[in-house]
Design goal:
72 residues, 2 helices, globular, alpha+beta, binds zinc ion, 2 strands, two-stranded antiparallel sheet
Amino acid sequence: MKGKSHQLTSGGGGNLLPRCYFCGEVPAQGIHGGVMIKKAFICSACEQDIVHLQVGSTDYRVVINKLKEILG
Ligand SMILES: [Zn+2]
């Protein structure tokens, strides 16, 4: 999350690999490199970021909004 602004540069491969909903990265381990929340995939790096977010921080609000999108 923090400062990451990766565009969707990775790829070159099948469509089966999950792409992180937050950072847009495709983990090398595929589905094992993160968690699925409903139909959204979150890579382990972002998962860690989320876990360590400070409540009330800017990132926190961004993440909460994203999670709301995911959870509908
Ligand atoms: Zn991610």
